[in-house]
Structures are given as structure tokens and as C-alpha cells.
Amino acid sequence: MRHARVFAATHGLAAAAVAGALAWGCAMAQAPVAGTGSGAGTAAAAQPLVVRIGNAAPLSGALASLGQDEENGVRLAIETLNARGLRIGARAVRWELAAGDDGGHPARAVALAQRFCGEKVAAVIGHLQSGTSLPAAKVYHDCGLVNITPAAGHPAITRSGYDTSFRVIADDGAMMDKLAEYAAGRLAVKTVAVVEDGTAYGQGLVELLRDAADDSGLKLTEISTPGAKPMASTQAMQARPAEPGHAAAIGMLRVSHPDAVFFAGLDTEAAALLKQLGQAAQGDPRLARIRILGGDAMCTERLARLAAGEPLLGNVSCVLSGVAADGLREGGGWSQRYARRFPGVTPVFSPYAYDATMALARAMVDADSAQPQAFLPYLRRTDYQGQTGRIAFTAQGDLQEPTVTVYGFADGKRFQKR
User: Fold this and answer.
1) Among 142-156, 232-246, 264-278, 344-358, which stretch is predicted with the lowest mean pLDDT?
2) Average pLDDT, the chain
3) Minimal CA–CA distance to 59: which of 49, 69, 46?
4) What are the respective helix, strand and coil percentages of the chain, to the nearest 5?
5) Is 91 helix (H, G, I), strand (E, B) or coil?
6) pLDDT tens digits along 5-59
């Protein structure tokens, strides 16, 4: 397979890692281990060490709800860390959130990354999208700032040679591999028409699906959405209004009658496509049987509401990185804590933002330092069970064992298929 996992080499620091793990499991690290705080005076030791974790997400614009969800995960992790009374050196740590809004735009993401570099935050969780993560990654690398994305899936984020970039979610390549395998195996799909929304996200998915299709024996036919304008590779994915031009793509589906159609775009556009397909299927029963395949941006619980009552919603199979909420390590515990802290908000990327924050904190405690150059080696060698699964990185900064889940929709709800 193209996406063979490259496991990080085993290095030293075992004794320090064990000591850090033992301290981590306690409510309070009773004494400092050798490190940055060993020479601090009594007065300095009495003052808490403030460790600021930056969070970069779209808190405004079309993706603001997802950006807020990401921030919620970081905030919940920081509140959990402060309750544990951890120490770095001889000093108790007060963890703080430095929130930043990139608006879902590459230029603003770069400006925010530069701001975080100037403010010298300890590390950054973010960005949400590939289009914002890619340009920001270079800025972080140049100033030596560690960053972990809890959501962005473009493979280039961890394959651009930036040793400060990490990801706690499966990349888009792994998701397309899983989707192609499921479609060819479980659904017996042989031919797939492709509709993409013209964003960098959609275009990237199509290329990765093309590779995955070769491995799975699927035959792809590409259909471009009329009116969609190609964007630069670093362009953020943006929500678009429903395109009446889906009718042209549906007309082509009437002629070719593929086994499935793969939609590379957001849930809002997917809902528009489902509605128009449903209308067309009334005059063409073969369209009513077509399978609908999709990536993570359309595989949302919101899609069930946006396409409520559409019969073709039941034909959808889509993929998400990670596990379902009831598969989190704490079972229902984490979800319940999140619900109490943020009532009425459905967690999407927040569990991954939570795990990313906790991974950073573990590395800092193990290194006995909040300086990036000191804790970065410990982060590279971290290995523990987070809420979303095993957190252990490859040499490139990806998860060693990423999880991808296939979902479908029934009775107005999203459910796990496989």
C-alpha cells in the first residue's frame, strides 16, 4: 500500500518517560525531577509556571461551529490539567489557553502563526483545515514552535519536512483507502462517478481516491460541478451555496449509470446533491439505487438534518477518522463531561483537540520543561492511550495506528457501519 506506516525509531529516555508516566497518573507530582526547575529559588518556586497553549481555528465564518468545537476540546483539556496540579521542575503549572481565529483563510492563518511565534506560546493546537494548516506549518517550523492538528487531513502537512508538525487524526489518504476498500468489498461497487466542489479539499480527496481506486479495482469517472472555481492548493475549504448546476452532473449520471457517486465536498453541498438526485430518481428508478460515497466533510450528523426526508440519504456511506463517540476510551464519560461543559454542542474534532493538548502536556512533564526544543523529543516518542485511541507518532508526525470508521444514515441519524 502507498500509505504504509513508518514507525518511529526507538530511542533512549526510557527512565525519564517511566518517571513522567508515574507522575502523570497521580493527582499531583509531589517532587520535581531533574530539569529546568532544579536551580530555582524558593521565591521563584512559589510562583506558578504559566504554560500557554495556543489554539488556531476558524472562530468566525462558515466553519465557526467546527472551530469552536476544536477550541472546546483544548479548553476542556486545560481545565483537566489544572485540576491535576501537575509540576514542571519545582513549580506548579497553571495551564492557559491562547485562542486565535484564523477565519478559515490561509493568509489569516499565517498571520496568526506569526503572532503565536511572537508571543512565544509553548505550542499550538491547530489548524482545523488543510488549507490553513499547510501555510502555517512553515511559519511554526521556522520559529521552532510545535503544532498538532486535530482535524486537517492533507498528507503534505506531515510530509513537507517540518519536524514540528504532528497530527492526531488519520490523514485523507488513509480515509480514502478505507472508503475504496469498503465500496469495492462490502458494497460490490465497480464504477464510481466523481463530483467535487472545486475547493482544495475536494480536489485533494479526488486525487487520493484515484490512488485508492487503483488498489481496490474501482473505475472512476470524473464529473466536475458546474460553477465551481478551482482554488490554489493552500486555499481553505469554504462552505458554498447550493449549486443548481448539480442538474448537469445528474444528467450525466442518467447516461452513465455508475454503481456509485463519490462527492468530494462539504455537507451543505452534499445535501443539495442528495435532494436533486432524489428528485431525478422519481423519473429514473436506477438512480434511486445509486450508492453515495463521501469523505469526512460531508460525514456529519448535520447532514441528517440538512437532507432530512431524502430517501437517498440511506444510500450514503462516508468515512471519518477516529472512533465513534461511544468508542472513546472513557466510554460515555468523556462525552458526558463535554456535554456538561458545553451543553447542546455535538463534539466533532474536540476529542482530538483534547488528546493533542494532553499529548503536549505529557511531553512537557516528561521533559520537565515547557521549552519546545526540550519537550519535542519526548513528544516524538510519546505512546499512551488517549480518548480517541493510541497516541504514538511516526517519524513524520502521523499516528502509528490511525483509525478510520465508515458511517451511514438511517432514521434521521448517523450510525457506524464498520
Assistant:
1) 232-246
2) 84
3) 69
4) 45, 20, 40
5) strand
6) 322 333 333 334 434 444 454 433 333 333 344 444 555 567 999 999 999 999 9
Grid cell, residue 95, equals 495551564
Q: Which residues pair with 262 in a beta bridge?
A: 194, 293
d(CA 347, CA 359): 19
- Which residues partner with 124 through β-bridges? 54, 147
Buried b vs exposed e over 221-252: b needs ≥16 C-beta within 10 Å?
Answer: eebbbeebeebeebbbbbbbeebeebeebbee
pLDDT band at 327 (very low <50, low <70, confident <90, very high): low
Is residue 220 within a helix (H) or strand (E), and if so which, with residue range?
Answer: strand 219-224
Q: Would you state the cell numbers that stand for residue 168, as one nine-digit string?
A: 492526531
Q: Quote the DSSP letter at residue 259.
A: S
User: Could you count the other beta carbons within 10 Å of the beta carbon of residue 15?
Assistant: 9
Give the DSSP letter string of 331-392: THHHHHHHHHHSTT---SSHHHHHHHHHHHHHHHHHHT---HHHHHHHHHT-EEE-SSSEEE
CA distances from 147 to 54, 231, 410 (A): 9, 25, 37
Could you read off the pLDDT of 281-323 as tens digits, one per residue?
A: 998 999 999 999 999 989 988 899 999 999 999 999 999 987 7
Q: Which of 415, 307, 347, 327 is nearest to 66 (CA)?
A: 347
CB contact at 8 A, 103 and 61? yes
What's the rounded Cα separation, in Å, for the pair 294 and 320?
A: 10
- On the question of a cis peptide bond just before residue 3, with omega within 30 degrees of 0, the verdict is no
Question: What are the tens digits of pLDDT across the range 385-398?
Answer: 999 889 999 999 99
